[in-house]
Amino acid sequence: MEKRADREEGARSLQVLQERWEAESRGRWTPRLIRDLSNWICRQNRETGWKVELEAIEEGLGLLSPDGIIQKMIDTHREAWNKVTAYVEKILKTKKREVER
């Protein structure tokens, strides 16, 4: 009975957190990438090493946002296009492996 109550309380807490996540108007970059918090919180793979790679790319290109990344790739040199493409491909391949497990 206690485990069930704990699960229900956890689900309620997660729902409240999700509602706050969706309502917050500041810093919308991360919520655009992570729409469903339960999927993020309950994920098996806890690695977030991509941040280091993203910071290295942004050091050369400036801040990347979902709204401006394509334009930045178009406006900059070929090397920038290749770096962003390799970064995205790495993320997608990793995610595909996770799904296939």
TrEMBL record:
It comes from Popillia japonica (Japanese beetle). This is Uncharacterized protein.
